[in-house]
Amino acid sequence: MFLLYLCLLQVLTGAQHEPGYCSFYEDCGLNPAVEGALIPPRVPCKDYRKAVNVTGDHYELFKSVCPMLAHGEGKTLACCSFRQLTALQSSLTLSKAVLIRCPSCADNFAHIHCATTCSPNQSQILKITKTANITQPAGMVKEAVVGYEAYVSTSFSDASFRSCKNVRIPATGGYAIATMCGRYGATLCTPQRWLDFQGDSSNGLAPLDINFKLLPDGQTAGLPPGAVLFAGTALNCNETTPTGGEACSCQDCEQSCPAVPQPPPLPEPFMIGRLDGVLVICIIVFSCIFLLLICYVILDPKDVTCSDKASLATQEFLGSLFQTWGTIMARYPLIVLPVCLVVVLAFAVGIKDIELTTDPVQLWSAPQSRAMREKAFHDANFDPFYRTNQLILTAPDRPSHYYDSLLFGEQNFSGIISKDLIIELLELQQKIQAIEFWSDELNRTASLKDVCYAPLNPDNPSLTDCAVNSLPQYFQNSMDNLNAQVNMTELGVTKEVDWRDHFIYCVNSPLSFKDITALGMSCMADYGGPVFPFLAVGGYENEEYTTAEALILTFSLNNYARTDVKFKVAEEWERGFLEIVQEYQKNPNTNFTFAYMAERSLEDEINRTTAEDIPIFMISYAVIFLYIAVALGEYSSCKRILVDSKFLVGLGGILVVGCSVMASMGFYAWIGIPSSLVILQVVPFLVLAVGADNIFIFVLEYQRDMRRTGEKREEHIGRVLGNVAPSMLLCSLSESVCFFLGALSTMPAVKSFALYAALAVLMDFILQMTAFVALLSLDARRQDANRCEIACCVTVKTPHPSEPNQGVLLPLMKKYYAPALLNPVSRVLVVRSYFTNNGISVFLQLEDSYMLDYFAYLYKYFEVGVPTYFITTKGFNFTSEEGINAVCSSVGCDQFSFTQKLRYATEYPERSYLAIPASSWVDDYIDWLNPGSKCCRIYTAGPNKGEFCPANESNIPQNGVLRPSVEEFNRFLPDFLSNRPDLQCPKGGLGAYDKAVVRDKETGEIIASRFMAYHTPLVNSQEFTAALEKARELAHNITMTMRNVTGTSQDFEVFPYTVTYVYYEQYLTIVNEGLFNIGVCLLPTFVVCCILLGMDFRSGFLNLLTIVMITVDTVGVMTLWGIDFNAVSLINLVTAVGISVEFVSHLTRSFALSIRPTKVERAKEATANMGSAVFAGVAMTNLPGIVVLALAKAQLIQIFFFRLNLVITLLGMAHGLIFLPVLLSFFGFSSNIYILLYFSSISITFINFIQLQQTIVNFS
């Protein structure tokens, strides 16, 4: 009975498992169970028969398709007909297109399917599980196999999988296995999942269902009686194939990689013992400086020196010169003022031609800098980097939910991955895509298609050809696809599948043309390209895309030169984009919280914040004017308030500042040096600080000085000017020379700022010596006549007091402040604390750099770094075999080729900052030329005979070559670059490479090409800068290697380029640039101070030391207050040097010329007399205006103008009015002996004696 049962079972199944027999044979037609297949799903007929001996053409085709099973003609048995082999060849061609770069992988992949289709022992290694009746063309009905179970040993399946798992797709930098593992992608792919996808007819590629059962070698449990495991020999990826295919390259096979030395370990932090080395060195340096000062004091000379004599001679000369000058200016005010006005207008008229630079690239990157030269080369050959317009949307309050998927199991979906929000995003996307506007440049209505980046149809794009990357693109932006629902049965379970199943599949297999669900939809975007998940969603971990916290919507536009008419068209489209997005953000029904940015946003933000904060600046200047007008007045009695006030003088001082700035701007506009918004905001503030100080010193000195008997008003003004003008000259000349030298900077913004500031300060001094002196003379006439300031015709009878007006500050500083500051205990504490703080400030300034909060969303949610191109220049022979091997990374290429080195760098992303190897047009061109890919073909008949035939047309392929000749390389390269990739030939270069290769139009020589890689996500300027530095190091290494290739020009170069490099290159040199600029600013302060003080080197050194300490402490406080070191703060630091001169130099000169007998008394006198004027003129002028800037909305103003200027002013005041007097009391000269001798000599005139006596009395 048992034997009878077995016989009956064999009859019913129609097949046994025994060697030499087939389970099916011959092509039976199309599988009726497969719908929407991407290739014809041809299936075999069920036919239990002996294996067939293949001969003739049948054998030749068999040997071509399945060489591993061929044993010679007449000696080879097989279970596949000629028609089956043709269908198998067509099916394998699709996979070979991406696997052929690794011959052993392609061989193993073919081996699996050849074994199940053609093995002579086919019946032993598979069991038919499903059949269907198919009517033949002749009307006969045959039983076709539409499903079977294949038995494969894990040793063969695992080895095959290992040989293929690292094969790359050069165009994307990703793994080919990701396209062959369905929903699992490359990361989660296993041998079982890999084969399961090959046998899933729902993927649009497999003609029938195959259930691969993978079992360990020797295991029989689970196998039908007589069945055996297929355990063929799988090649390792570093082995050659039996047909002569070379071992796979390192790019595709880890076993082929040479021994690459590990990079050296990162340097340890610089430590001295257990302390930070930098801090220890700072302490040592400042200790040495302190000891040198002590030694210098001990060597204080007691005799008259040449310096003493030179000092007096210099002061006499300058005093006499300015006294004469001031008398003349005061005597003819009505002539001086119109002349000054004419001169100012002559300069200022140039403002009509002023050019404002708002492009950040032109502001911060020097025209001849390396980054700008590389950008120019890139833009000239490849068009500018495409323009990005992007939204990153979140829905933080939306709860997550779980979805029990039929195919993927239970999945956690974040709140933002919900259908209603995707629909809302799609509606927003479609609204943006529909933007239309009238373009004067095109003289017609323009839309997105006129400026969009359309990689697969660049010549005549439609809206659907525009590259828009978003989650709705997985559904081809179709509401019908998004709403599609269908029942699906899997393993006996029937459930509904919908958009969620399609989404899960597509984010894991974005290159798929058909998902494996019953929906059967493509994952490709409507413009024909893939949407990689990091371009659609963000804020996920470990590739769990369903838990993403953000949706990303990106519109890519072509970029154009600013002179191109389409540049304005693109900007106008972006204006419409911003208007829609801003309107959408204001809509209360919006369910998203999002950030957005257009390509024009950075430039727009600079302009917008400037316009919005202009009123704040105007209020700031108004507050300063009000303070100056009130503070300059002499208020002896209420009845004389309108007489003694100085509103007009204060207004005149402000006008002098404004005229000097206008003259500077007009002059440079005249000669073609562009300005910037930073200049408009910083230079007036700087000149106002300098000008106000000089005004206060001059006016207060005039008010405190008694007119001598018989002295005319003009002579009085001239004499006062002779006393204070040398000090004003000292500061103004120091600052002007400082800024002129600062123009040596390579940064355009710093250079133009320095030029504008230098001339403005110089013009301010000239106008103060002319126009302001004349204005003060007119005001003195009015005041002497007791006429009111506003109503000049009204006089007041109350006479002017006979005693000079010392104001409020001078008595306070004489009586309380100077004695308290300069007592023995205070002096020691001040010096010790200031030197300690300064050392800490040097240590603190080594902290991190600045990155705008504007990009916070980008850094938080974007999961990939910026793309970077490695660009080759002219001079390399790509057409030679040696040249190809030196560049490519596929089979037969050099182990240390161009693209191989980039691949090695990605092995250490934390060091190289490269995440994905470069896409290589050379590699894809080689694969495209390979006959196995069926891409490179020509017409063999008809009117186009001999011409290129695209891959989507049927034609007999011409044999290609792995390494083309020079003629073949040049002939087929244009065809490759214009061939649109499709399912038949995914290696076509259109879209990926059509703009990556630039050839000379006459010779055909490749004069530029680029290879695109990706950086790791970069989150701050320190990482951006390090990425630039490492990319340049790598490119230099590649350049040196490629120059060794025969025929390569020695000026050939490889360099990296991405759009951010021009912004961050400044950080490579910002420290050196900053030290240079500050250094050249400090040098003239020392030189000018020494010269104008009569070669008084000690005073010049102490003056310089205090300014250095202010600058160093400013950088230290910048770190503590989040004001980081970049080009904008460098401008402010240069400004800080100029303002520091105002705080320091006046007081230093006053100390140097004092005739008090001891250093402490001289410091007290200088602090009281000059310190009060500096406090009133600089500190109290700047502070009210700076405090108003705290109301500004712009972050740029808040950080770099409010915070930094407040720091500069407070530190300048603290050092100039606290530290410097104490420093001078310790380390200044005891006295200028020659000046004392001069004033005490018999030859002294009576007038000078009275002046000396009154000075002593006043101080006492």
UniProtKB/TrEMBL annotation:
PROSITE patterns linked: SSD
Domain SSD: 613-778
Main location group: membrane
Keyword Transmembrane helix applies: yes
Keyword terms, alphabetized: Cholesterol metabolism, Disulfide bond, Glycoprotein, Lipid metabolism, Membrane, Signal, Steroid metabolism, Sterol metabolism, Transmembrane, Transmembrane helix, Transport
GO molecular function: cholesterol binding
Entry's transmembrane regions: 277-299, 332-351, 614-635, 647-671, 677-700, 720-747, 753-778, 1075-1095, 1101-1123, 1130-1152, 1172-1192, 1204-1227, 1233-1250
Lipid metabolism listed as a keyword: yes
Top-rank lineage group of the source organism: Eukaryota
Subcellular compartments: Endomembrane system
A GO biological-process term: cholesterol homeostasis
Catalyzed chemical reaction(s): cholesterol(in) = cholesterol(out)
GO cellular component, one term: endomembrane system
Gene3D superfamilies: Multidrug efflux transporter AcrB transmembrane domain (1.20.1640.10)
Similarity annotation: Belongs to the patched family.
PANTHER family in the cross-refs: NPC INTRACELLULAR CHOLESTEROL TRANSPORTER 1, NPC1-LIKE INTRACELLULAR CHOLESTEROL TRANSPORTER 1
Protein name: SSD domain-containing protein
Organism phylogeny: Eukaryota, Metazoa, Chordata, Craniata, Vertebrata
